[in-house]
Amino acid sequence: MKLLVAALLPTIASAFVSTATIRAPTRSAFVATTKLAAATGPAGKPAASKEEDLELTLQIILESLATQDDGDAIVDDDDDDSAEPVQEQPKAEKKPKKKKKKSQPQDMAPVEMDVSKLDIRVGVIQEAWEHEEADKLFCEKIDIGEEEPRNIASGLRAYYKAEDLIGKRVCVLANLKSRKLVGFPSHGMVLCASNDDSVVFVNPPADAAIGERVACAGFEGEPATENAVQKKKVLDKVFPDLKTDSNGVASYKGIPLTAGSGSCVAEGGMADAQPDSPGFVPRLCAKVSIIMKH
To answer: Where do the DSSP E strands lie in 64-177?
Structure first.
């Protein structure tokens, strides 16, 4: 501001007159035309000297500048130049998100295929009749504790008569997929023991409830699904260890199959039935392979 006033003083000095009115520089210099009559001194008389006139003029200029609005004030270029420009803060760079490492699945122990994967249920044959197109098959309706009896075909016509089957208590392998045997939809199979001369049912204890699952101590667990039994070939892995002991008790790896308060026993006490002779096997399984070949 001091530089501005100093710049105005020579102009005012050169314009010194004895008249009562002096015009200030135009607005392009600092503001609109300003009357300086007051610079003529007290009571409207001209200033006594040039110095007095300059002093009064300077006073008027300073008072005028002090009363100007911010929008009318003269901007000091030097001050503006000295002001440092506001620097924009650089935007923080986004850190890339770290991808979570997927935990590697731990090596799972292979599932042991044992008798617990078989869902063997206590059942009773309600109806039985000869298959019309297969001379080796019986068609049966067996109650295993479900809402409806199971349709099951058994290749036992060489060993039993149809009337002998009705009311017989049996063990049924229930977690097998339904399939048609010579047109008859069979959903499961009955367990039998066999030797070179005969094939007989494996009977559950008299007090075993219909629908009760046959157990084997030490081999507890949920049975496999019907699909798993087929895909994982559970029957091929479990059947070789199913046998009867010297008392005809059905067992798995020497441990009896049980239900109710006792063990499941081959009819007539067929002892030491071995799977290779053909042993303790679901007879239908052996017969199906023959039927399918023919």
So the answer is: 120-130, 138-143, 150-154, 169-173
